[in-house]
Amino acid sequence: PPLAPPLAPLGRRARQRVARGRAPIDARLDLHGMTQERAHAALLHFLRRAQAEDARLVLVITGKGTRPAPVAGGDRGVLRRLVPRWLELPEFRGCVVGFEPAHVSHGGEGALYVQVRRRTT
């Protein structure tokens, strides 16, 4: 099977433009309150739809995991930890150019900017 394309960072200038509201965020997905299974499926569907609609940049809100972990090093912020790992999986790489944590004005540690890969024809 062909190798997945490498991930690329958003870039300092592009990140600044988005943070200052000078570059549009084409779509948003809020994963708050979802199970891991449901969030994974929702993220994949969302990114494929964004790609089909020629979106360039989307915001994925994971939340920060405000509930205390039941055990030290436990499940606090599960989606916050897992979503970046998912975006690196081969099934997502066809849709994703790269991703970075969002600016504080867009959710900071609890959100990610995701660059959407252009469709291949």
Parts with pLDDT < 50 across at least 5 consecutive residues: none
Secondary structure class reads: alpha+beta
Distance between the ends: 19 Å
Residue share in β-strands:
15-25%
Strand order of the largest sheet: 1-2-4-3
Extended strand count: 4
Order of helices and strands: HEHEHHEE
Contiguous helical run count: 4
Mean pLDDT: 86
The helicity comes to: 25-40%
- For the report, how would you describe the main beta sheet? 4 strands, mixed
- C-alpha Rg (nearest Å): 14 Å
Would you write up a description of this structure?
- This protein has 121 residues and is an alpha+beta fold.
- It is built from four helices and four strands, in the order αβαβααββ.
- It has helices at 12-19, 36-52, 78-87, 90-93; strands at residues 27-30, 57-61, 96-101, 111-116.
- It has a four-stranded mixed sheet with strand order 1-2-4-3, with helices on one face.
- Helix 2 (36-52) links the parallel strand 1 (27-30) and strand 2 (57-61).
- The two termini are 19 Å apart.
- The mean pLDDT is 86.
